[in-house]
Amino acid sequence: MAYELFDADNHFYETTESFTRYLPERYKSAIRYVELDGRKKLVLRGRISEYIPNSTFEVVASPGAWADYFKGVNPEGKSLRELAEPIRCRDEFRDPAKRLQLMDAQGLDGSLMFPTLASVLEEHCRDDVELIHEAIHAFNRWILDEWTFNYKDRIFPVPVVTLPIVDKAVAELEFLLENGARTVLVRPAPVPTPSGATVSPGDPRFDPFWRLVQDAGIPVMMHASDSGYDRYVSDWEGGRDEYLPFVHTAFRVIVGEDFRPAYDTAAALVAHGLFSRVPGVRIAFIETGTAWVPRLQHHLHMAYRKRPRDFAEDPVETFRRHFWHMPFAEEDMREVVGYLPADRIVFGSDYPHPEGLAEPRQFVGTLEDAGVGQDLVSRIMGANLRDLMTAKAA
Length: 394
Hints:
alpha/beta, TIM Barrel, four-stranded parallel β-sheet, three-stranded parallel β-sheet, 14 strands, globular
């Protein structure tokens, strides 16, 4: 390509050691794998998790297998399991050197590399915040072993920071920065606290963490996750005691694909004044799409008209300045470039997940088919993310 391709949403598949290799002895029984009917299953605090049915990832769905489903092309009404094309997990999905060779073949100059299974930890352990911190630190040490946090300035594995105990969150961020992290992942969700209550991640108690983010000049990634919202959907369809991202009903598709966690988290960070206290914080929403953005901007505008004294400035301007967004390939790009600033849009393929693109470069065609000009195509496909990763906030 005549311009850089920097993918904001690549993934690796964890091994069964990823959570347990460095887990302190006192927590060994809290997170483990067991044999059940001939298959290994992840057990979290005594409960078998079906969050990812094959949590060893020995077999995975082929990249892009569900792309048509998420475009709304499924006339026979098949389930995701019926649409899946299972393959053996490839070495490129677990080894950075081989992944770099694959990226060369794909034409990718760089990528952010996110976990696949790790998002299960925080919600399942939300009433034991000490365990959350220990489990996340153990997982980050595994990432450092297997991937590093910066592989040859082209692959940037994204470690996790959990916020419940702010001193521990700061210590974790310091550890990650000392070991070369260029960005970190924070779950878009209310933060559980030692008292049992939950609070906004924009609450002033977390400012020491956000100030360190600002001083380090790194962006924070907020990737789609188990944000705890399945409990609200279950209020309408009966109890389900675990979020199962690939078990859909019509109602769950209607409600779940609204990406309410992203909407609510962005609203909380703006309304609770984070950016007026720590103005250098920059956040990218990854794998949450952009369909929710116009509605949030409308509600921010109306809130400002009704309660201007609650904001240091127009909250729409705050939102447009501090957040970056990754649209889904199935979205109408003509609309996306109309309601988002040109320098706040990044491309992500979700490779090698089945709901993403089979080939990351396919996103170029999506933009060109929508009539997006080449200058903006080049910004979305690489320059915007490169700027976000290398430049501190003004």
